[in-house]
Amino acid sequence: MIRFFSPICLCLLSLFVALASAEDIHPDPALSLWYDKPANFTVRTTEDGGYYKTLIDQAVLIGNGRLGAMVQGRVDQELLRLSENTLWTGGVNPDGDYKKNMGRFQRLGDLAIDLAGPQSPEQYRRSLDLSDALAAVSYTANGVTYRREYFASYPDQIMAVRFTASRPGSYSGTISYTDGHERISRYAKNRITAAGGLPNGLRYETQILVLNEGGSQKVSGEPLEEKIQFSQCDSLTILIAARTNYVMDASKRFLTPENPHERVSKDLDAAAAQPYEALEATHIADYRRLFDRFSIDLGPSSEAQRALPTDLRCKRAVIDHDPEFERLACQYGRYLVISTSRPGGVASNGQGLWNDSNCPVFGARYTNDQAPTEMDYWSVEPTNLAECHQPLLDLIRSQIPAWKSDTQTAAELKTVSGAFTTRGWETRGNHNIMGGQSHWWNKGGNAWYLHHFWEHYAFSNDTEYLRTVVYPMLKEVCEYWEDHLQPRPDGRLIVPDMKYSPEHGPFDVDGCSYCQELVWDLFTNYLEACDTLGVDQSYRAKVASLRAKLLVPGIGSWGQLLEWQTEMKDFAPRSEREAMENAKEGHIDSPQNGHRHSSHLLAVYPLRQISYEKTPELAAAAKVSVIARSRGQGSIGISFIHRTAIFARLYEPELAYGEIHKFFKEATPNFMSFALYDAAPALPGAIAEMLLQSHQKELHLLPALPKAWPTGNVKGLRARGGYQVDETWKDGALSSATIHNIAGHAITVRYAGKTTQVDLPPGATVTLDADLKIKN
User: Fold this and answer.
1) pLDDT tens digit sequence for 295-344
2) What's the pLDDT tens digit per position in 586-626?
3) What is the DSSP string of 450-506?
4) Residues 6+ apart with CB under 8 A from 469
5) Is 763 exposed, middle or buried (0-12, 13-18, 19+ CB in 10 A)?
6) Which of 206, 270, 689, 715 could be a cystine partner for 726, CB 3.0 to 4.6 Å?
7) 3-state helix, strand, coil in the chain (%, to 5)
8) How far apart are CA 346 and CA 82, in angstroms?
9) Which residues contact 364 (CB under 8 A, 6 or more apart)?
C-alpha cells in the first residue's frame, strides 16, 4: 500500500510546493502582447535561391533557453513550429576548409492540432503575458468559451500546451507531427516519437505526449500517415520534449556517443507524472525569479491606447506618445533574453531560438563582426539578468580550441615578423556552435568577445571570477596583439589588413577605428585586472606601453570621428560590392552617408574609450558622426538600438528617444526586425543607459532622461562595481535614488552636475534625494 500511494503523494507534494511558491502571481495586463487575429505566414527567400513560408515575424514566441515554439493560433488548426537550439549542421574544421563546415541552424518540426467545430469565432485574442511567460489563445463560438495556454518550462525542460473549454466534450480532432528532416514519426498509444540524425553526427529526438480528460483518443490512419485522433474531450494537455547529443566540449568534437532517447523520455515522463497546474506554477515561479528583479514605469497611457492590439499599437506609438507601450517593449526584450539564454544551454543565435527553415536567413549564424551576437547580450547585466549572460560566455570558451587551431594555420594571421601565430586566437566574422567558422577574419573579434567576460566581472565585482576565468583569457589575447600590431613610421601601432569597417567601406585597410577601439578596450581591461589582482606588473607595463602607442581615431574635415586612418574622400571601389555600396550610400565618408552600422562608434558604446569627461573633442566628433548616420535610409533594427545607446552616452536624450521610435516604425508584429532578432533584446540595455550609466566608475543618475518620460521610476538596475540602483523622478527631475551595495566599494554618485561619495558595506542600502543627500 505504501508503494502504491508513494507516487501520488509525491505528485501532491510537488503541486503543493509549486503552488505555494507561485502564490500571489497575477499577470499584469499592461505587460501583455496581444493580437486580434492568428499569425500569418510570410515568404522568405534563402541564400541558394529557394523560398519558405515563415511565422517568425508574427507568431507568439515561447522558449526555455533550449526549446522554442512559434504559436500561430488559428481556430481550425493550431500550428506550433518547434526548435531546439543545438540542432545544427556543420562542425569542426579538420582540413582548414572553413566554409563547408559552417552549417546552419535547423528546424525541429511542426506540431499540428486540427480541430473540428465552429470556424467563425468571436472575441478572438492571441496573447503573451510577460509577467508569467504564458502564451494564450481564446475565443467564443456557439456559446462556448475556448482557451489554450502554452509555456516552455526551464525547470522541467519541456513545453506544455493546454486546451480547455467552458462546455464538457468540446474538443474533437487530430494531432500530427512533421519532422523537420522528413524522419518518420512513430505513433504509439498517446505518444509521438520522431528521431533522426544529421551528416555531422548529430542525433536528435522529439517526443510528444497527449493527455486527455474526458472523451477518448486513439491512433488512426494508414501506416506512415498516422495521427492521434481525439473525440469529445473536456480538455487536452500536450507535453513536448526534445534533445540532441550535442555537448559543449571541443575535445569531444561537440558530440556525445549517447542516443538522446533516454534523456527525452526521462524529461517527458517526469513532466507527465505531475499535474498540469504544478508544471505551470513551477514554470512561473522560476521565470519570475528572473523577470521580477527589474521593473520600470514611464508614465500612464490612455484607455484608447491600451485597447489597441500590439501590432497596431506599435505603429501608433510612433505618432502618439505611449509610455506604457514603451515599458512593454522594454520588458519584452528581457522576456526574449530569458526565453533564449539560460544556464546550461548555448547562446542565442541569429534568430534567437526560433526557426522554421533549414535555410534560415543568414543561416541563423553567430555574427560577431559588428554587433548582432553581442547585441543579444547588451541588456543582461544592466537589467539584472546576469545568469543569462553565461550561455554566451560558455559557448565562446567551448569554441576557442577550434578557433585557436584555425588561427595558428591561417596565413592571413601571421605575426608582424611573418611567422604563424603561436599565442592567442582570433575569430572569423561568423561561427556556429561546433567550431565551424565562415567569412573573413574579424580582426579584433577576440577582444570583442572578451569584452563580455569583462562586463560580467565588472557588474558582479567577483574578483575570484576575474582571477580564474577572465584574467588568463585577457592576458592570452594581449599576447596575441603584442605579436600582431604593426608599427607605422611615426611609431603608432595599428591593426593591419582589416577587411572593412563592419560592414562598410573599402577592404584590406590598416588601422580602421573599429579594430583600434577594440584592442584599446582589451588592453584597458587587462591593465585594470592587473591592478585589481595585484599581479604581473612587468607584463602590465608592456601592455600599458602598447596601449599608449595605439592609433586613436582622428577627426575629419566636417567634424566627424574618422572611421579609417584617413578621410575617404576619394575612395575608389575595388570590387562589385564596394561599387554597389558606394552608389547606394553616396560618398563613403561624408555627412550624406547614412550607413546602417556605426562600427567606429563602439568606443562610445558599448566600450568606454570616448566620453565628454575624458575625451571631449572625440566625443563631439562622435556626435557629429552618429547624427549623420541617423539620417540614413538604409538603417535596420539594430542600427536604431545601437544609436539609442550612443546618444544616451553622449547625453542626447531626445535623439536617443527618437531612435526608439524609429525601431517601432519598422518592427514586425512581434518586434522582430526584418528577420533580425537582435534589436528587441538589446532595447532594454539602451533604455537602461538612458537612466543610469556606470562605465566611468561612478553611478551617473538619469544621464539622458527624455522629456517624454517626465515622471516615472525604475527598480533593479545593476551597475558596474557591484551595485543595484532604484530611481524615482518627477517633472523631469530626480526625486530619490536608492543604492544597494551588492559587492562593491566606495563609489561616486553623480546627478545634474552634483557629486557625492557613497561608502557602504556590502549588503547595505542608502536612499539619496535630488541633492544627493541622505533621505531620512
Assistant:
1) 999 999 999 999 999 999 999 999 999 999 999 999 999 999 999 999 99
2) 568 888 888 888 999 999 999 999 999 999 999 999 999 99
3) HHHHHHHHHHHT-HHHIIIIIHHHHHHHHHHHHHH-EE-TTS-EE---BS-BTTBS-
4) 453
5) exposed
6) 715
7) 35, 25, 40
8) 17
9) 104, 105, 349, 350, 351, 355
